[in-house]
Amino acid sequence: MSKIKDNKPISYQGVFKSISVIIKGGGDVASGVAYNLYKAKIKFLILEIDNPLSVRRKVSFAQAVIDGKTTVEGVTAVFADNYEKVERILSDNNIPVIADTLSDAVNFFKPDIVIDATIAKKSLGLKKNIAPLTIALGPGLEAGKDADVVIETNRGKNLGKIIRKGFASANTGIPASVMGYTKERVLRAPKSGVIKNVLDIGDYVKKGDIICYVNDAKVKSPFNGTVRGLIMNNRAVSAGLKIGDVDPRADRQACYTISDKAHIIGKAVLKVVFDSI
Predict the structure, then answer these.
(1) Inter-residue contact 195 to 235 (CB < 8 Å)
(2) What's the whole-model pTM score?
(3) For position 192, what pLDDT does the model report?
């Protein structure tokens, strides 16, 4: 159930003229999009679920749902548990984050632009006609049918490509290579249970170090590096779920900054937005 479902003031319908964009999703890539729009002084809100499971939570505005507010590279997002607070958050020059369905948020705010930044590889409520301009990130949605524009999210020469007809590249399921490591970089839950973190994001690790437990099952570092992402402590996880990642470059600063990939995608989205004005 939405955290704000019972707090939508009918009298506020139609007065949020400053909201022109809704971004669905507040994960690390979505936050790269949000950061670029924020720096361009575009007013928007982020739409999330009640209990987001952010792996790269130090660079994810979704974490505001859990902590009340979060700051990424000097930009602060604040959770709004009712729609009346959105305007106040914007007036404080912060990003509002709400937990609600896309259809309800669109009906309430009537945005000019909707961006599906969940990279869910399928439609989670996005339809081409729900706003004058719709943008989707990644594979699974067709530009010209499911959305007006699709942005390529697969690393390589086409990363950030603006697609107005057709699909982005299919999901390979293989993370980009970093110092020769691909799938090994990703930490997955060995079983269903509750995560108990031993280390935290930004910690240096050696091969074999225990990063966390899922119930009594150990999750160890596959090589030397830094913990770049890790789901919050005490969260219930399912077997096989991505719960973290290790960066072999051991660049601690990278754990707290938006990735180059997210920035490239964010700049592509910004270009589409500006071209539509």
Answers:
(1) yes
(2) 0.91
(3) 98
C-alpha distances (whole Å) from 33 to each of 29, 49, 137, 252 are 7, 18, 10, 22
Residues 6+ apart with CB under 8 A from 65: 3, 26, 48, 49, 50, 51, 52, 79, 97, 99
The answer to whether residues 99 and 63 touch, using CB atoms and an 8 Å cutoff, is no
The domain made up of 10-171+261-276 is a member of CATH 3.40.50: yes
The answer to whether residues 100 and 120 touch, using CB atoms and an 8 Å cutoff, is no
Q: What angle do CA 56, 267, 25 make, to 5 degrees?
A: 40
Phi, psi of 242 (to 5 degrees): -70, 120
Q: pLDDT tens across 92-104, in order?
A: 999 999 999 999 9
Q: What are the sequence ranges of the domains in the chain?
A: 10-171+261-276, 183-247
User: What are the Cα distances from residue 106, in Å, to 55, 70, 133, 172?
Assistant: 27, 24, 12, 32
| Secondary structure letter of residue 160 according to DSSP | T
| Helix 260-276 / helix 28-39 crossing angle, nearest 10 deg | 50
Fold equal for 10-171+261-276 and 183-247: no
- Please tell me the class of the 183-247 domain: mainly beta
Write down the mean pLDDT value for the chain.
91
Residue 15 corresponds to which amino acid? V
Q: What type of residue sits at position 136?
A: A
